[in-house]
Design brief:
Elements (H helix, E strand, L loop, with lengths): L1 E7 L1 H5 L18 H4 L2 H6 L1 H17 L4 H12 L3 E7 L5 H4 L5 E3 L2 E8 L5 E3 L19 E5 L9 H10 L2 E5 L11 H7 L3 E6 L11 E4 L2 H19 L1
Parallel strand pairs: 1-2, 1-7, 2-3, 7-8, 8-9
Antiparallel strand pairs: 4-5, 4-6
Helix pairs in contact: 5-9, 7-8
Length: 237
């Protein structure tokens, strides 16, 4: 069985109208990172942190997948004898909305909170604040957005490293190659023999680690790549 790992970053969500972290517009531009994305901020200004993620949740809930997301769906449905896993740096749920499978959110999910008292993860429906109690341990004020803050370790890294070591093909879509450890995933895959592909608007910082580069909108470049893979499969049957 062939194994493909697809790493996605903010660039794939940008085509669905979600601003990237470093863009000049969007919600991130109205807040300092240290005020909303550190554990210290949550400890000293929990209501500001909750306000930010409540706003972000409303924005992300409205966003819809684009053709790049659906190209992954198509590959997972139609590419024979192939396991496709998605490692995403994005906290939005666009992969889920597109019916993608095997998704690993290494930076957390916007629709979850985690209790700092008991460690239980809870789905978030509406807004949350510092007066909410954990539905598991009933302690108030300990529900933190289940987002990896700066200084915290990404999630599922043991599983991710296993997937990278076993894949034949590594694809990065819409990622800057700046944020570690995700920026180093391509090197792990490459050292284990995988072919490496980059789909991005511009050159990534780690571009030299990729065997092939495709520049432009992922909804066009990756969609075409996915279609070509299926045509190649059809011709070999």
């Amino acid at each position: 069985m062939k194994k493909i790992v697809i790493l996605t970053g903010a660039g794939i969500s940008a085509e669905s109208g979600l601003s990237t972290f470093r863009s000049a517009d969007g919600l991130w531009n109205n807040y300092k990172v240290e005020d909303v994305a550190t554990i210290e901020a949550f400890e000293y200004r929990p209501d500001m942190v909750h306000k930010f993620y409540n706003e972000l949740r409303h924005i992300m809930n409205k966003a819809q997948p684009n053709l790049a997301h659906y190209a992954i769906t198509m590959l997972q449905s139609e590419l024979l004898d192939t396991e496709i896993n998605i490692i995403t740096q994005n906290i939005d749920l666009l992969h889920e909305k597109a019916k993608n499978k095997n998704i690993y959110h290494i930076h957390g999910r916007i629709d979850e909170c985690i209790c700092l008292n008991c460690g239980q993860i809870t789905k978030v429906g509406g807004d949350i604040s510092s007066v909410n109690s954990c539905p598991h341990c009933e302690v108030m004020g300990m529900l933190k957005p289940n987002i990896v803050f700066f200084g915290e370790m990404p999630k599922c890294l043991n599983k991710v490293e296993k997937l990278l070591a076993e894949c034949n093909l590594f694809i990065a879509i819409g990622t800057s190659g700046v944020v570690y450890p995700a920026a180093g995933f391509v090197q792990i895959a490459k050292e284990n023999g995988a072919k490496t592909y980059l789909f991005n608007l511009d050159k990534a910082d780690n571009v030299d680690l990729f065997d092939y580069h495709f520049y432009g909108k992922a909804s066009e470049t990756f969609k075409q790549f996915a279609e070509d893979l299926l045509i190649e499969q059809e011709s070999s049957l």
